[in-house]
Design goal:
It is a single chain. This protein is of the alpha+beta class. Helix content is about 70%, strand content about 10%. The chain has 11 helices and 6 strands.
């Protein structure tokens, strides 16, 4: 285009001005390109910077995890709504019946009377008075209902608290398994590197090298399984704590052995006193007793008292004004709440049976959890008494002997598998002990000191 301008007719001045305009146009286009490209680069850099931000890390020990769980878990929030609902019923039980206002117009239409000359305007207020302590029994029943719902909430905290503790320790188990698998994999990877050189020099047979390579692959598969198990366990914990899947969860409590030697007699006594589900059943039983008293009180009829005033129109006879007072009492000839009393008695018997069943369940749960704890404690202490160290040292001894030619590859693989099995079993035993301890604490209804 610039060449056309230079060769265009009109003389040298015209060509120079055209060339100048062309050059300015190209400069403008170049600057726009730089701006656009630079802006895109800045935006891309900003996007990269924003996208590269690491997910937020959440560091929690066991106590902090339980506290966060109690604050954010949806099941507990739902249980709290039940408490507020029962308090609303308690407020309703305290209220008196509303008075009734009646307004009417009375007229006579006999002997030539009409609404205009004989009408009377009547206003009356009636109030129902409950007798035999009905309101008091209703308030008492609603109060026990609130206690029952509050105890149910505490029981939900007890059960879900065990759930979060158990899920927390499952993450710790996965971490221990991963560390063990990585240690074994790295150890055999070094053995594989050394024996690859020895094979090339003709010191070992190819079948021995293949066996070592297969063992490395086996340990690598264990690493992958432990990683998957850990991710699944962390997802469970994040879900219980209502954390985002993008949150990086770091659990700081160590899965160490803490010996606990509880007293079975004290545990059973404490459980019967503090277990929230037993408290709930007892409150329900008291509520049913109040309901029975209320049902029997309905045999006594309530009284309705009314008072009013009647005013005749200006053309009524003598323009009389009258006060009204009346009393209404139902006659309990047929219905004396016989069916309600029977239902209340059955409800009381059912509540007593439910309490007895819960007490029996609690006693058995405490007994089973106690004996499971003792058995798992015995197993953990057996590992800690020397079996775990023996398995590790045996593997090391056989590995050194193999390096000096004093042991075969089969001896090395057997020692490695034995050491791995013993260490994995110890991790399982340690988790089982901790699980049974949490189960015993949940069965009793409170934490157990060392």
């Amino acid at each position: 285009m610039c060449d056309d301008m230079f060769h265009h007719g009109g003389g040298p001045g015209v060509g120079l001005r055209a060339a100048t305009r062309c050059l300015c146009g190209w400069l403008v286009l170049g600057l726009m390109s730089v701006v656009l490209i630079g802006g895109g680069t800045v935006q891309a850099a900003e996007s990269t910077a924003v996208g590269s931000l690491p997910p937020p890390a959440v560091r929690l020990n066991l106590s902090e995890a339980v506290a966060l769980f109690l604050k954010q878990n949806l099941n507990l929030l739902i249980a709290k709504y039940g408490i507020e609902s029962s308090k609303g019923q308690q407020i309703t039980a305290r209220l008196f019946p509303n008075p009734v206002l009646q307004i009417g117009n009375v007229a006579s239409f006999t002997q030539g009377n009409t609404l205009a000359n004989s009408g009377a305007l009547t206003a009356q207020v009636q109030q129902l008075f409950e007798l035999a302590g009905k309101r008091g029994y209703r308030i008492e029943s609603a109060g026990f209902g609130v206690q029952s719902v509050e105890a149910d909430f505490e029981d939900a905290v007890r059960q879900l608290g065990f759930t979060i503790k158990d899920a927390y320790y499952r993450v710790l188990v996965a971490q221990r398994r991963l560390a063990l698998a990585e240690e074994n994999r790295d150890r055999f990877a070094r053995i594989l590197d050394v024996n690859t050189i020895r094979f090339k020099k003709g010191y070992i047979a190819e079948v021995d090298l293949i066996r070592i390579r297969l063992q490395v692959v086996d340990f690598q598969s264990q690493v992958i399984e432990a990683i998957q198990e850990g991710e699944s366990a962390r997802a469970d914990v994040r879900q219980l704590l209502r954390l985002s899947p993008a949150s990086k969860l770091e659990l700081t409590t160590e899965m160490d052995y803490r010996r606990v030697d509880p007293d079975m007699g004290k545990l059973r006594t404490v459980a019967l006193e503090v277990r929230p589900d037993i408290k709930s059943r007892r409150a329900t039983l008291s509520q049913r007793e109040s309901d029975l008293k209320l049902a029997k009180a309905f045999r006594v009829p309530d009284v309705t008292i009314g008072a009013g005033y009647s005013v005749q129109g200006p053309r009524g006879p003598d323009n009389q004004q009258m006060g009204i007072l009346n009393l209404g009492v139902p006659l309990p000839l047929f219905n004396r709440n016989q069916g309600g009393i029977v239902q209340a008695e059955v409800g009381l018997q059912s509540a007593q049976a439910e309490l007895d069943r819960t007490v029996n369940q609690v006693e058995n749960q405490v007994d089973v959890a106690y004996h499971n704890l003792l058995q798992s404690r015995r197993l953990v202490e057996a590992y800690l008494a020397g079996v775990l160290d023996d398995a590790r040292s045996t593997f090391t001894i056989v590995e050194r002997a193999y390096e000096r030619g004093g042991a075969t590859i089969l001896d090395l693989l057997d020692a490695a598998r034995t050491s791995r099995t013993i260490q994995q079993n110890f991790i399982e035993a340690l988790f089982s002990y901790q699980h049974n301890l949490f189960q015993l604490e949940s069965s009793v209804g409170q934490e157990i000191a060392s």
